[in-house]
Amino acid sequence: MPYPSVRIGRHETYDKLVKEIYQLLSDDDTLYYIPEKRINALADAETWLKAAILNFHCGRNFIHFITDRISGKLLGIIDILSPEVAMDNYRLDNYPYFIEFYLSGTERGKKIMSSILPDLIGKLGNREIIELGAVVNRRNIAAIKVLTRTGFQ
Q1: 3-class DSSP state for residue 134?
Q2: Which of 2, 17, 22, 27 is the most exposed place for a label (fewest CB within 10 A)?
Q3: pLDDT band at 82 (very low <50, low <70, confident <90, very high)
Q4: pTM of this prediction?
């Protein structure tokens, strides 16, 4: 009996995702308020994705990709960071889970985050994530409005 066709190596969907992460996290409009998140090469995007996968399996963070329903194109990323990751990045008295999100500059003003975040945050309770923090650049009025509408204080 013949063996089915097998592709050894990386999958084309993986390569496409790496390219789209690179496009998102190297775009000036996307990173206007968070330039420190910039990645400078396709290899950096692959490293970012590998770290996200490993961190997910270790329970350090939970990445959610926002994609266009029709084209499947990556529009943004929502990252839920564990208290352990927060400890690595912030000095606080209390370490909750944190939310970070990135949305393609071309998708700004379409209320994508406003429609996604309330449902996502509601589902975090199923993971027993009750306290959630966010850090936002004070000049990023749109992100502040989205978070406020979602229930952040």
Answers
A1: strand
A2: 2
A3: very high
A4: 0.84
